[in-house]
Backbone:
């Protein structure tokens, strides 16, 4: 056992205690406040009451049965409103409502960021496909000049853009999911009222939309390019 010595701020009196155990105090029964390098400890009730004398407790935790929870909440609401306006209380219902508001805020922020990132990603993908096709106009014109059909060119371009999408989804589901999981796990680890449920369903739901875009963009680009004849395209590039 170890000895712990505590001094009062108002006098030179000191108390010595034997440390019986070292524990991780749950948030629900903690003091709800902290100071740098200040330990949190429990004392026997008789010694604690003898030291604080008649001072009021800073925080009281009341365990109420489920059947009387609503009645107790109404009583405390009335008491803190009409009798002692300096007293504040938190109930299971108020904490649940506060957490629900936090959930709504996180959902709004998450959805907004996801939409912006998705829009930027889709625009970058479209720009990359258009730039790639435009840079390969000479190559595509030469392929068509030796007998390659326009439908074959379109099929080839669709296959290439589809491969980009599949590789992106594969990277997202592996490396991206691992990074997101580690980040979310670190975010929720410090909050006792949060539990992490990680899912890749949103990424899988985006896959059909991205595949449709991977088909539409090459088709539209090739149709615009095909408005000029093969000879005209070869002459312009030269």
Residues:
């Amino acid at each position: 056992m170890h000895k712990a010595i505590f001094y009062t701020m108002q006098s030179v009196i000191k108390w010595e205690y034997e440390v019986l155990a070292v524990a991780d105090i749950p948030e629900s029964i903690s003091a709800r406040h902290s100071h740098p390098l200040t330990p949190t400890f429990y004392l026997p009730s008789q010694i604690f009451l003898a030291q604080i004398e008649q001072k009021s407790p800073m925080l009281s935790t009341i365990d109420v049965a489920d059947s009387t929870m609503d009645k107790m909440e109404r009583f405390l609401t009335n008491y803190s409103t009409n009798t002692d306006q300096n007293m504040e209380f938190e109930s299971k219902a108020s904490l649940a409502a506060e957490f629900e508001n936090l959930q709504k805020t996180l959902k709004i922020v998450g959805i907004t960021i996801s939409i912006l990132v998705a829009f930027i990603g889709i625009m970058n993908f479209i720009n990359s496909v258009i730039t790639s096709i435009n840079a390969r106009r000479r190559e595509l014109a030469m392929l068509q000049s030796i007998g390659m059909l326009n439908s074959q060119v379109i099929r080839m371009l669709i296959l290439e853009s589809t491969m980009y999408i599949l590789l992106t989804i594969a990277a997202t589901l592996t490396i991206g999911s691992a990074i997101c999981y580690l980040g979310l796990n670190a975010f929720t680890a410090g909050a006792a009222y949060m539990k992490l449920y990680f899912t890749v369903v949103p990424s899988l739901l985006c896959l059909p939309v991205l595949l449709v875009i991977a088909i539409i963009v090459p088709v539209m680009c090739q149709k615009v390019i095909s408005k000029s004849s093969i000879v005209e395209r070869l002459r312009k590039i030269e």
